Amino acid sequence: MDKIVVEGGVPLRGSVDVSGAKNAALPIIAASLLAEGDHAVANVPDLADVRTLGKLLGHMGCAVERSAATRAVSIRVPAAVRPEAPYELVKTMRASVVVLGPLVARWGKARVSLPGGCAIGARPIDQHLKGLAALGAEIRLEHGYVEATAPRGHLRGAVFTFDGQTVTGTENVMMAAALAEGRTVLRNCAREPEVSDLAAALVRMGARIEGAGTDELRIEGVPSLRPLDHTVIPDRIEAGTFLVAGALPGGDVTVNGCIPEHLEALIEKLRTVGAEIAPVKPPPQPRSAGQLRSGDVGGLRVIGNGRPRPVDVRTAPHPGFPTDMQAQLMVLLCLADGSSKITETVFENRFMHVQELQRLGADIAVDGKTAVVKGVPSLSGAPVMASDLRASAALVLAGLAAQGTTEIQRVYHLDRGYERIEAKLAPLGARIRREKA
Ligand code: EPU
């Protein structure tokens, strides 16, 4: 098992490139199950979660290959697959549940392990199941598995309102509706850019979907789809993590290849705490013909001046402040000149980084959904333990800001969502390395 060692206190300077979005790549790769043939997905990050999904599709009988040179994944989906996602694979990655909608829509049946809880909260999938049931799927829960069948082999369009906004729930039901018979209207949908990117990918496959990026999706089912040919959007959470790194005192970092429009809530908070953020001329980007995107790819330069100012933050579904950036922003607020209040409204248990940040000298008190962060002038390095993906990223940022050495254990959490973060941060002047723990 690896650990990351950071010798902190060096402000970051330089530029860094953003990879493709994990949370867009995963459902888009799962969408390949909707059509037989040879699929191509470009700008796919090389991450543990993407490899797990590749294994899962392999288990079903698909051939999945990654080209390191082009950063593309090709998927050959045969005429028939084994429509099953076993516990051994699903337990390592909750997002595997996004195969459920495509499988039941295309093969009329699916057997997918229930993902179970995870460190950041209970994370039920009741809304995925209710949505699929509205499309006519018969759902049974047996032996820890969801067994979904479509009577007469296919689903039918319906009007369905989600009880609460769910990203992968919206994705699952949208994918299923793409092949359902007739019209589906989904209300109270998640509006995250990753949902829109999946919708764009499905439209390129021949799906008829309107309303992506709003809370109402209107989908006219089609009898079949063609294979995928899509380029994944840049990862706004990876980009946001680098923006926070640059906003640390003394930083001056250009984050290339991001979509500034996807980062608005974070940019607003970073400006409030005193960072300067300006767009930079985007490097030329290949964009395949007809591709829909919810914003233009560009670059952002962030300059972290002196000590940050405090700010209150409340996480919320997009376009609100993303829960996936809460831990990283907290690091900046740990160093602020005053007290900030962070309220986590999306997940019930997403403050596990607090105890670890306290080990570095942060002054944070948690009361239920709220953390009160009293800024301190400096943090000091210490051994810490990563508990989940974004918490791990926060610990790397804290290590960069802290005086002395920080060792982060359980780096496998980080590797699920960041492509070799140490290799991206080192050229910015970070003294960071990976070691065998
Ligand atoms: N929820 C339900 N019922 C459901 C589905 C969700 O009650 O059927 C609740 C959840 O328990 C949670 C809230 O709704 O309290 C929102 O959860 P959501 O379903 O939107 O989360 P998700 O789809 O499981 C995705 C990302 C997460 C990100 C959240 C919120 C992927 C693969 N994962 O998860 O990403 O935090 O949306 O934006 O897209 C990460 O990348 O680190 C990560 C955890």
Task: Give the key terms.
4-stranded mixed sheet; 437 residues; 24 strands; elongated; 2 domains; 26% strand; UDP-n-acetylglucosamine1-carboxyvinyl-transferase, Chain; 29% helix; alpha/beta; 14 helices; binds uridine-diphosphate-2(N-acetylglucosaminyl) butyric acid
Structure description:
By secondary structure, the protein is α/β, with parallel strands linked by helices. The protein folds into two domains: 221 residues, UDP-n-acetylglucosamine1-carboxyvinyl-transferase, Chain, CATH 3.65.10; 210 residues, UDP-n-acetylglucosamine1-carboxyvinyl-transferase, Chain, CATH 3.65.10.10. The chain is built from 14 helices and 24 strands. The strands form six sheets. Strands 22-23-1-24 form a four-stranded mixed beta sheet. Strands 2-15-17-16 form a four-stranded mixed beta sheet. Strand 22, helix 12 and strand 23 form a beta-alpha-beta unit. Helix 4 packs parallel to helix 6, helix 10 runs parallel beside helix 12 and helix 11 packs parallel to helix 12. About 1% of the residues have low confidence.
- In CATH, the homologous superfamily of the largest domain goes by the name Enolpyruvate transferase domain
Instruction: Using the alpha-carbon principal axes, give the shape.
Output: elongated
Helix content: 25-40%
CATH topology of the largest domain: UDP-n-acetylglucosamine1-carboxyvinyl-transferase, Chain
Number of helices: 14
Q: Radius of gyration over alpha carbons?
A: 21 Å
> Quick one: CATH class of the largest domain?
Alpha Beta
- Ligand list: uridine-diphosphate-2(N-acetylglucosaminyl) butyric acid
> Mean pLDDT, rounded to whole units?
95
**SS-based structural class?**
alpha/beta
* End-to-end CA span: 6 Å
Q: Please mark out the parts with pLDDT under 50 across 5 or more consecutive residues, or reply none.
A: 288-292
Number of strands: 24
Strand % is 25-35%
Strand order of the largest sheet: 22-23-1-24
CATH architecture of the largest domain: Alpha-beta prism
The description of the largest β-sheet is: 4 strands, mixed
